[in-house]
Design brief:
The chain is mainly α. 75% of the residues lie in helices and 3% in strands. Strand 1 and strand 2 form a beta hairpin. Helix 3 runs antiparallel to helix 4 and helix 13 crosses helix 19. The longest helix has 32 residues. The protein is globular, with a radius of gyration of 22 Å.
């Protein structure tokens, strides 16, 4: 119990301490405290996953019937692992990257607070607890988006706030309705709707769709996806990595908890809600890939890519079949690692060269070979080329969709995923080709090696290697996720 609370509130309190205490304006002291915060949070969260697994406890009651509950289950383990890996790797990367940014104290303060809030979402034991911290995540992560204080950054931050709040209030409508038709809001595999809910099927289906669309805002699902490509380019690169790899996954986790732990698949399968959800995910997959293909700015291209790739996950969840759901859960991990690597590579390039557009980076592989090799390997994973983790997750998504009995979608889904994979190759690999093979007219005499510091290259290498290991040795993890999928469907 105490380990869960420590993993949540220690980073939040340390972040607040950095924000309010003036003595942490000294960079060496600031980084030391931040590093200790990362280490303690990682230790407490890892210990909670191993010692508190399968347990739950009530922290306090808002009212007689509304408890704040924390618990550790299989879904907590999955999402907490990716939170720990991404937040720590991106945090270490930022120790070097943020040298050229101002207001580091504010950045690290909110970064630690976001770390704690994300842990709280992973360990939330009921819908009320999850919703409270989901709202808090928007408020605490917005300063990371508008960090540089430019007009563009402020407008992007406000757009992020507006979209996220609108989505959250759509979801809140569903929470109100569910509370009237359930004896509990505690997350339970298979759902918690009571028999009396059958007489309110129509309004509950509307509530379910509103919650899927509302929580889907955070996951960048069409039609409320526009905040994501606006926010990523203006945020510092390590913050973009966290946004793309983890914060958007809060929307995915919210939908999983709503569909599989509150409503239940028996209630939603075969309804108009499932059909509409499938349509929205496939639109998002194709649209995000097309927009990324047309985008010349590297970070914005990766942001559109996130829009597309997150809906791979949502498509698998929307099929409500064990194989496809397994692929979705695998893609949560694979995408988190890959997109962290890609955004950190983009940050290293921007930090070293000051260039932001893909067409400006011809020959960058001659100057930063390690960085571009990591970018290339991660790109192959996002396309779905073996032996990366992205191939394994997309294989299960495609096979699960083909095996499903859903009319039209059983073949339309894999077709859209294949087209999206081709587009992904089209917008990611040109940088690799032009970077390593700049052509005969390239001035090789002016080329010099200038890899960034180990504080940047080591985190990039770690997440890249992990994305490959996920593809090389997926058996045990896949079996565990398959059992989890069978349990919640």
């Amino acid at each position: 119990m105490y380990l869960i609370l420590l993993s949540v509130f220690v980073p939040i309190l340390m972040g607040i301490l950095l924000l309010v205490r003036k003595e942490y304006a000294d960079r060496r002291r600031l980084l030391a405290v931040t590093g200790v915060g990362f280490a303690l949070t990682g230790i407490f969260a890892a210990a909670a996953l191993t010692t508190a697994y399968g347990t739950s406890f009530t922290l306090f009651y808002l009212t007689e019937t509304l408890p704040i509950v924390f618990a550790v289950d299989e879904m907590s383990v999955l999402f907490s692992c990716i939170v720990l890996i991404v937040l720590i790797c991106a945090g270490v990367f930022s120790f070097a990257y943020m040298k050229h940014e101002t207001k580091e104290k504010r950045y690290y303060g909110f970064y630690l607070i976001v770390f704690g809030v994300l842990n709280a979402l992973c360990f939330a034991g009921n819908l009320l607890t999850f919703y409270l911290f989901f709202e808090m995540l928007t408020l605490t992560s917005m300063p990371l988006v508008l960090h540089n204080g430019s007009h563009e950054a402020i407008m992007a931050g406000l757009k992020y706030l507006f979209f996220s709040m609108c989505g959250a209030y759509m979801a809140l409508f569903g929470v109100f309705l569910i509370s009237q038709n359930c004896s509990t809001l505690t997350f339970t595999a298979g759902g918690v709707l009571s028999g009396a809910a059958a007489s309110h099927t129509g309004i509950l289906l509307i509530a379910a769709f509103g919650m899927i669309v509302g929580f889907g805002v955070k996951a960048g699902m069409f039609p409320l996806h526009a905040w994501l490509p606006t926010a990523h380019p203006v945020a510092p690169a390590p913050a973009s990595a966290v946004l793309s790899a983890v914060i958007v996954k809060a929307g995915v986790l919210a939908i999983i908890r709503t569909v599989y732990y509150i409503f239940g698949t028996d209630f939603l399968r075969g309804t108009w809600v499932q059909t509409a959800w499938l349509i929205l995910t496939l639109i998002t997959v194709f649209m995000g890939s097309m927009l990324a293909y047309r985008e010349p700015v590297l970070k914005k291209r990766l942001a559109y890519s996130t829009v597309s790739q997150l809906s791979y996950i949502l498509f698998g969840l929307a099929t409500m079949g064990a194989e496809a759901v397994t692929g979705s859960l695998l893609h949560v991990l694979a995408h988190g690692l890959i997109k962290t690597a890609l955004f950190l590579c983009a940050g290293a390039i921007i930090y070293t060269t000051g260039k932001t557009r893909v067409d400006e980076l011809r020959g960058i592989g001659k100057e930063m070979p390690l960085t571009l090799w990591c970018y290339t390997i991660a790109s192959l994973g996002l396309i779905g080329i073996p032996p990366t983790g992205g191939f394994v997750s997309k294989w299960h998504l495609a096979v699960g969709s083909l095996a499903d009995a859903l009319p039209v979608f059983r073949w339309l889904g894999p077709a859209v995923l294949l087209v999206s994979a081709l587009l992904t190759a089209g917008y990611l690999l040109p940088l690799t080709v032009q970077g390593f093979l700049p052509g005969a007219d390239y001035d090789y005499g002016q080329c010099r090696k200038r890899e960034p510091s180990p504080l940047m290259t080591v985190p990039i290498t770690v997440v890249t290697v992990l994305s490959v290991l996920l593809g090389l040795f997926p058996a045990q993890l896949t079996d565990w996720l398959m059992r989890l999928a069978d349990r919640i469907i």
